[in-house]
Amino acid sequence: MNRGTLSFGIKHHFQVILFASIIMAALGLAGCGGDSGTIKPSGTYEAGSKTEKDLQDLLTADARVENFDLSGDKLTVNVKPTFADAPIGLQQRALWNWYNTLQAARNGSKKVSVEATFEGKTVASWTGGEGFKPPAQAKKEGGEKAD
């Protein structure tokens, strides 16, 4: 065996291992680095990024909404039967969107609340302190028997 061939092979293997190590270290540093600032929840609007008009446009375009009333920090949305009969997850998503838009329009106030009503009864609600209250909880508070 030629001595030059053997030394080239070892040298070549060393270079390949060194190159792979450098690439792995660079990818590791890039993956672990980054901003250490606070991360906002997905889908949350920045305070002040929405206006009352944005909220009104959103509710007017929503087919589940019969009408609505915005009094101060409280939004009451009279919903159609399709909303009242919808699964809780769909109701929660709608209320979160309305609450989030109202909160952004009120410069991030935690005092805002959204209440969905159907035929004068609360179907579901969302407040800053308690989050989403599904229909069963809303019925119990209204004095009716929950399902």
Overview of this structure, please?
- The protein is elongated and about 85 Å long.
- The protein has 147 residues and is an alpha+beta fold.
- 47% of the residues lie in helices and 20% in strands.
- Helix 2 packs antiparallel against helix 4.
- It has a five-stranded mixed β-sheet.
- The longest helix has 30 residues, at 3-32.
- Strand 1 and strand 2 (74-79) form a beta hairpin.
- The chain is built from five helices and five strands.
Which overall shape is indicated by the principal axes computed on the Cα atoms? Answer: elongated
> How many whole angstroms does the radius of gyration measure?
28 Å
Low-confidence segments, given as residue ranges, are 138-147
Q: In percent terms, what proportion of residues is strand?
A: 15-25%
Mean pLDDT equals: 78
What is the rounded distance between the termini? 86 Å
Order of helices and strands: HHEEHHEEEH
Helix coverage percent: 40-55%
Q: How many distinct beta strands?
A: 5
Estimated structural class: alpha+beta
Strand arrangement, largest sheet? Answer: 1-2-3-4-5
Largest sheet: 5 strands, mixed
User: How many helices?
Assistant: 5
